[in-house]
Amino acid sequence: MTWKAEIDGSRCMASGMCAGIAPDLFALDAEHARPLAEEVPEEERVLDAADSCPALAITIRDGATTVGPRP
Residue 67: what are its φ and ψ, rounded to 5°? Predict the structure, then answer.
């Protein structure tokens, strides 16, 4: 199964935390991070990347349900 990863470019501050945690799933461009694919595997490190974002710019969804970042 897979989740969908979204990064809000207006919130992203390019800290690189997501790319550091999951470099095969997230990349850091000049101004923002981005998911390398719209769908990401259902893995703990995907949620860790969303949780670690200092700007809370990453949203992980399972269908209509938001699963990350965790409260």
Answer: -110, -15
Q: Which CB contacts under 8 angstroms, 24+ apart, belong to 63-66?
A: none
Per-residue pLDDT band for 30 (boundaries 50, 70, 90) equals: confident
3-state SS string for the chain: CEEEEEECCCCCCCCCHHHHHCCCCEEECCCCEEECCCEEECCHHHHHHHHHCCCCCEEEEECCEEEECCC
Task: Judge contact between 9 and 54, C-beta under 8 A.
Answer: no
Distance in angstroms (rounded) separating the CA atoms of residues 36 and 18: 11
User: Is the whole-model pTM more than 0.85?
Assistant: yes
